[in-house]
């Protein structure tokens, strides 16, 4: 592994080496991954003694996929369950769901569905000082266990400290039946850790930014887990869903150890956040981050073809056309990416010139000449 400093070069790890550190990481008490796990919701609530008033945050699609069934299960178990349909992961939506939780006097939140619903449940439950359970219906992102929430508003994207779920219930039957594109995107989100970690290392060398070797290794390992199993990721397979969920859990744990999204979000994520702002029809988060990672690895002078080949093997997009995004939107996102989080030092530095951005996108086959 080339990306990790050796012992002498390592900037002191501020969390691990600080004798006064109060907490290393937050991690769920129960992590259930497997077929037909949804029926375990009442058992988990009973075990954790939080079965009375449950606020279930879900989306319009995931309500039918899992939300309604979970509500039934909670009510059959003698609990009270109110459903909140989540919209955009925005500050306004967090306030709305927090108020709903307070008014209902919820003793637990369930985040059921996609990255957006889980992030909203994560942050709103923290605001209400009650625990939350993460119930992904797709393996599309690595926020399943992380203690961070990504909140988006007016072209800005912030990673906010929230809380880790008290439990994760990942039903691989549901996840493997979700559109395959979502699973492939989740694999892309994890693979993109290769460049996040390189950016973090760069920041620790150039700016003396606090760096955690253990968090970086966890993020790197999760990317390796997917790359090394790329040929096993196939539509409809329970085993593929398990591989992806385990890697996503490890990647999320890396963020919890770091106390920031640094190990799993670097220049490639800034590119993706810029695309969300620019593109007429953005692609999925994980798809954009993965394509960004191909290009950022090129900038790092690393093996960008390894990332590209793994994505091709999985069936994830590797080009603008495959993502349904125009070439000029890719270039504009590359030019704006460094402005997304100016405080986060990455290989993008003070920004790219238009000709450098175009050359990089052409060489890496993201756009055509
Ligand atoms: N906190 C963290 O550490 C992280 C947060 N993120 C954040 O997560 C978000 C991206 O998450 P992502 O899940 O990719 O995208 P979305 O949250 O936008 O969800 C994508 C779509 O998938 C649908 N969906 C989910 N499960 C199923 C299913 N089983 N069947 C059919 N449709 C389904 C959702 O439906 P519905 O409309 O019903 O929800 C939604 O329309 C971004 O906001 C990103 O910033 C990403 C990584 C880490
Ligand atoms: O998406 C993430 C990790 O995959 C983290 O989110 P941010 O890019 O919002 O920090
Ligand atoms: Zn991500």
From TrEMBL:
- This protein's superkingdom? Archaea
**Compartments in which it is found:** Cytoplasm
**What are the entry keywords?**
Cytoplasm, Lipid biosynthesis, Lipid metabolism, Metal-binding, NAD, NADP, Oxidoreductase, Phospholipid biosynthesis, Phospholipid metabolism, Zinc
Instruction: Name any cofactors this protein relies on.
Output: Zn(2+)
Positions binding Zn(2+) in this chain are: 189, 269, 285
Entry binding sites for NAD(+) = 115-119, 137-140, 146
What pathway annotation does it carry?
Membrane lipid metabolism; glycerophospholipid metabolism
Assigned EC number: 1.1.1.261
Matches recorded under InterPro entries: G1P_dehydrogenase_arc (IPR023002), G1PDH (IPR032837), Glycerol_DH (IPR016205)
* Pfam families named among the record's database cross-references: Fe-ADH_2 (PF13685)
What Gene3D superfamilies does UniProt report for this protein, alphabetically?
Answer: 3.40.50.1970, Dehydroquinate synthase-like - alpha domain
**How is the cofactor bound, in the record's words?**
Binds 1 zinc ion per subunit.
Name the residues that bind substrate: 142, 189, 273
Tell me, what is one Gene Ontology molecular-function annotation carried by this entry?
glycerol-1-phosphate dehydrogenase [NAD(P)+] activity
Q: In terms of one coarse class, where is the protein primarily found?
A: cytoplasm
Q: Which CDD domains match?
A: Gro1PDH
Catalysed reactions, semicolon-separated: sn-glycerol 1-phosphate + NADP(+) = dihydroxyacetone phosphate + NADPH + H(+); sn-glycerol 1-phosphate + NAD(+) = dihydroxyacetone phosphate + NADH + H(+)
Which PANTHER family did the record assign? Answer: GLYCEROL DEHYDROGENASE (PTHR43616), GLYCEROL DEHYDROGENASE 1 (PTHR43616:SF5)
The job of this chain, per UniProt, is described as: Catalyzes the NAD(P)H-dependent reduction of dihydroxyacetonephosphate (DHAP or glycerone phosphate) to glycerol 1-phosphate (G1P). The G1P thus generated is used as the glycerophosphate backbone of phospholipids in the cellular membranes of Archaea.
What family does this chain come from, according to its entry? Answer: Belongs to the glycerol-1-phosphate dehydrogenase family.
Q: Could you tell me what this protein is called?
A: Glycerol-1-phosphate dehydrogenase [NAD(P)+]
User: What organism is recorded for this protein?
Assistant: Methanimicrococcus hacksteinii
